[in-house]
């Protein structure tokens, strides 16, 4: 009698949805986008490209809880973040959302190290020395923020955000001040972080080659979000 053969089936589990936006519409002086739907899954990276002024940063602000849309909703943990009470929203923004914008919001009177320590105090995580080395800022860590170059400040703000271990990274031109090689180093770290932490990332960029390294690429154009990849 032959042995029972066990057939091991691959488990095809649906990826968890991290963020879901429905019917987003927004305008300032003119309409920027209308009825946009958007989903970010665990371990997924999504790039948003488009012409200057098309509304990419505005969309990222809305997705990251910083700007309430004129219409539509943004769901995180199945709840519309704009219907949450202020303290709950602040907690999500502090603990779960890692916002990397062009204005770094670093504390300028403090050293680079102090800026990182603030993130460790908020999250009870350690400063990741290896990450600082990979980002090539380990040797400026004791300098004041004001003494760092623009690109070093940018990488410090990225290190600070990653120290928090966010569930979702929202990055608006995170490599804007960097040369091509350093920009790639930073992007590699962000992708690595997402993979290793079951996180997700939404990246706004003008760099098509950096966008194409993401799992999905959308172009904001004519009020719509068109899927390019
Ligand atoms: N807070 C605001 N109040 C009024 N108008 C705004 C505000 N924020 C953005 N806008 C306008 O909305 C439009 C889209 O701006 P946004 O920064 O979202 O574009 P973008 O696609 O990110 O541009 P860029 O690629 O140049 O950064 C612009 O015309 C801008 O002036």
TrEMBL record:
Keywords: ATP-binding, Nucleotide-binding. One of its GO terms (molecular function) is ATP hydrolysis activity. Signal peptide: none annotated. It comes from the Bacteria. SUPFAM superfamilies: P-loop containing nucleoside triphosphate hydrolases. Residues 12-228 form the ABC transporter domain. PROSITE patterns: ABC_TRANSPORTER_1, ABC_TRANSPORTER_2. Pfam families: ABC_tran (PF00005). InterPro entries: AAA+_ATPase, ABC_transporter-like_ATP-bd, ABC_transporter-like_CS, P-loop_NTPase. This is ABC transporter ATP-binding protein. It comes from Arcobacter arenosus.
């Amino acid at each position: 009698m032959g042995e029972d053969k066990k057939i091991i089936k691959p488990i095809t589990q649906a990826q968890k949805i991290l963020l879901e936006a429905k019917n987003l519409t927004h305008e300032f002086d003119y309409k920027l986008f209308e009825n946009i739907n958007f989903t970010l899954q665990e371990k997924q990276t999504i790039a948003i490209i488009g012409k200057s002024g098309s509304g990419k940063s505005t969309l990222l602000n809305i997705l990251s809880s910083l700007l309430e849309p004129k219409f539509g909703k943004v769901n995180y943990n199945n709840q519309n973040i704009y219907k949450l009470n202020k303290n709950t929203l602040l907690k999500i923004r502090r603990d779960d959302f890692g916002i990397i914008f062009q204005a770094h919001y670093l504390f300028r009177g403090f050293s680079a190290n102090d800026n990182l320590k603030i993130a460790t105090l908020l999250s009870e995580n350690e400063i990741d020395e290896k990450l600082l080395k990979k980002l090539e800022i380990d040797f400026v860590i004791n300098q004041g923020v004001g003494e760092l170059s623009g690109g070093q400040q940018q990488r410090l703000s990225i290190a600070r955000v990653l120290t928090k271990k966010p569930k979702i990274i929202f990055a608006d031109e995170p490599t804007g001040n960097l040369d091509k090689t350093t920009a790639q180093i930073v992007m590699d770290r962000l992708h690595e972080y997402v993979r290793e932490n079951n996180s997700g990332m939404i990246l706004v960029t003008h760099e098509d080659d950096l966008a194409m390294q993401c799992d999905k690429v959308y172009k904001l154009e004519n009020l719509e979000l068109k899927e390019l990849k």
